[in-house]
Amino acid sequence: xxxxDLRCGQDHVFEAWFGSxxxxxxxxxxxxxxxxxxxxSDVTKAVMAPNVGAKGNRALAAPxxxxxxxxxxxxxxxxxxxxxxxxxxxxxxxxxxxxRAMYLGEETAAPIHGETTAAEARELIDEGVPIAxxxxxxxxxxxxx
Length: 145
Fold this sequence. Notes:
This protein is α+β, with helices and mostly antiparallel strands. The protein contains 4 helices and 5 strands; from the N terminus they run E-E-H-E-H-E-H-E-H. The longest helix is centred in the middle third of the chain and has 17 residues, at 70-86.
């Protein structure tokens, strides 16, 4: 996994995780990367500070026991998301149509997950359809080993 600082056209800076630089580029060109603050899909990489470790001869301060580290928080978040995904149905690209049909009562409501473009997601939100993005990158069933 790789983390990028991203900036939208409205100058909001946010962090996003991807499987690789190529995965980021692929998702960005397909309009799947959007700002979590304003939903702007005009997203580019922001300037990032490199993660440089401390010199070997310097003592590192121990993390405060009461403050969880980012790695453990992300691990817990990934665990919770996996549990939710396990209890829902993968619907692929039919997600916008299925979510809308459930919202309108044309189909029995059930937990689903799938793919949608940023524009399709905005349309669903504007219509009042209750949807939410997955917080941790997710590989569709067809892309798993």
